[in-house]
Amino acid sequence: MGGGLAPGLGPLLQGLAPPRPGLAPGAANGSASARPRPGPAPRRAGGTGNGTGNGTGNGTGNGTGNGTGNGTGNGTGNGTGNGRTMGGWRDMSAEVLEDQYSPSRWSRRLDRDTIIDAHLEVTAAGTERARASTQTLLHVPYGSGDREKLDIYFPTNPSETFPVLVYIHGGYWQCLSKDDSGFAAPPLVAQGVAVVAVGYDIAPKGHMDAMVLQVRRSLVFLMEQYPRIRGIYLCGHSAGAHLAAMVLSTDWTEFQVVPDIKGSVAMPPEQGREKNWSPDLGQGCRAVETQLNENEAPSAVGATQAAAPPLPVPVPLGAVLVSGVYDLEPILHTYVNDALNMSWEEAQRNSPMRHVTPAVSAACEVLVAVAQHDSPEFRRQSQEYGQALRAAGWSVSLLDLAGVDHFDVIEKLSEDSYVLTQCRVLGLADPEPVREAWGAHLLLWDRMT
Prior knowledge:
The protein has a domain at 100-263 and 313-426: Rossmann fold, CATH 3.40.50.1820. 25% of the residues lie in helices and 17% in strands. It is globular and about 55 Å long. The chain has 13 helices and 13 strands. 56% of the residues are buried. The chain has a nine-stranded mixed beta sheet. Strands 1-2 form a two-stranded antiparallel ribbon. By secondary structure, the chain is an alpha/beta fold. The model is unreliable at 1-87, 264-316, 423-438 and 444-449 (pLDDT under 50).
């Protein structure tokens, strides 16, 4: 895994840390002391209330007796007797809230004890395959920190200029790394798109303010170091979707550069090339690097250091956000914050929902994607953030993917037959043909303009 997991995070990811204080006591077995396990919904004796459907975010069901109700609507999900309607997270018990923010608890394909390990294995193995079949420039520093590095996967047959997909990994801001983030590269590089996996300091070493700044600085580095990039395409998953959303609210004048953020791209069939590229390989791959980089070798730049006068301000055109968290306040009351140690002020400062900026002319198009088997809270956050962007004038589409959970919704980006791989949905080119061809896979296609 290349050191992707911070020490001691295995138990945390399984949802075993003690509950945090400050919310109403849980009702599991009459005690609030037990940490909810990810996996099948626990039974709650004598509970009644409204269960929230995990189908489209609109379905609801009534919980009676044991407090578990079946969701209805365009999908099936489980509600909990102690829960409240979507949007009412402050009324949830500590146990229910932590269930909602434990993605492994909602998977239908693997049990709670294996889903995390399986995800780590899939992303690591996929990245190894990508490095073996793609020209790469690994561990490129964009700053002085240990994790302030980029992995670049170059197109198989690059043109004079080409677009770049910047992938920001998830892991609840406390696990995974760029070394697990190249799994989607082969199909993209075969289409002439470069892929850049961004590294950033994860908790407990990293804190939220620093992570957001690091991701922003990585884009500044790309724009300054590689001026021949033909637009940056953002893609983030889970915590990475949060960081990508924070990029959209950046005041780039502070950095003397504005990234040409275009959104995302289609993922064509894989055509790998059996050639590794690292800085040690020198002349054999220098020609490809030269097309990107007018300088001879990459060098790190700081947050406010500018190697040249400010670039012309381009119009940003989009981003893809997959199963993200856009309001950090609920996280303060869950086990996730044990490692992050966020204050209320820090959570407010770094919540994309609270920093939606008005869209500029011809604003970037944003795709907010969510999995059918994400929790109701994850689904609520995705829909509400999309609606907030729409209200500010952004062009937004919500893609609800059937039959996937929080983990394989992103793992499948490496599969030729996956809906996100086959269509140009990441660029939002023409959604209606995609809807017709993949209707069985899309629970909801909401063109919010």
